[in-house]
Amino acid sequence: MSTQTKNKILVIAVAILLLTNMAMLFFFLKYREHGKKGWHGDHEAIMSGFLQKQVGFTPQQIQQYDTLSKEHRDKMKAMFDEAGKNRESQLKQLAAAGFSDSAINSTAEQSSGKQKILAVSMFQHLRDVRGLCTPAQVPVFDSLVSTILGRHDERKK
């Protein structure tokens, strides 16, 4: 396979991933804009119940978790809102550049950087919630957090 063919395949793959990510953001933002509560209400109840029943959080720890969670939710909302605004600008730039390989690669690079920021924010939030645990609760939290997040992913499907 020639280098040019490989490059075209990579560019097509990047374009498909970029469009898929933008579609996901569009549907996420559209779903939220219509005033629907989405999974956040259920998510909060699930996490609070998980932290109380499985990890053994006290009412004070739950209150601290609620504060952390609200701050995190507000921060993530702002990030997703900004991503929605940037999406339109990126599409206009791609069109203006004729969807050239370099424009697609540049846009995909920008998109992946923003996704990394979102992932880092989520992991930092988990670290902060873990920080609320007592030393005895930490091993329980560590062993069960992937289970509860995995269940959440299954429910979304």
Explain how this protein is built.
The protein is mainly α. It has one domain (3-156). It is built from 5 helices and no strands. It has helices at residues 3-33, 40-55, 59-96, 101-131, 138-156. Helix 2 packs antiparallel against helix 3 (59-96). The chain is elongated and about 60 Å long. The protein starts with a helix and ends with a helix. The model is unreliable at 33-40 (pLDDT under 50).
Short description:
This protein is 86% helix and 0% strand. The protein has five helices and no strands.
Summary keywords:
157 residues; mainly alpha; 5 helices
Number of helical elements = 5
Low-confidence stretches: 33-40
Averaging pLDDT over every residue, what do you get?
81
Question: Helical amount among residues, as a percent range?
Answer: over 70%
Radius of gyration: 20 Å
Strand-residue fraction?
A: under 5%
Largest sheet: none
- How far is the N terminus from the C terminus? 38 Å
Tell me the overall shape. Answer: elongated
Structural class computed from helices and strand pairing: mainly alpha
Number of DSSP strands? 0
Number of domains: 1
Order of helices and strands: HHHHH
